[in-house]
Design a protein that fits this description.
Elements: H1 2-8, H2 12-22, H3 27-62
């Protein structure tokens, strides 16, 4: 296992973590999980950007002219 990790340039810890996460999954299941994680990351970024916009609008509207 050490030689395989070295050949692919990953640590053994990474290999164990990947086995724990993806072990026993079919390739299609692992790909679906990756796609869902990517979509979730994009949605979280969208929500964060909207929260910033709301905060900025609230700051502008609360100023007295």
């Amino acid at each position: 296992m050490t030689e395989l990790c070295r050949r692919h340039g990953i640590s053994e810890q990474t290999d164990y973590r990947w086995k724990a996460k993806y072990g026993g999954m079919e390739l299609s299941e692992a790909q679906r999980l990756k796609d869902l994680e990517d979509e979730n990351r994009k949605l979280k970024q969208l929500v964060a950007n909207q929260a910033l916009d709301i905060h900025a609008l609230g700051a502008v509207l609360s100023k007295k002219f």
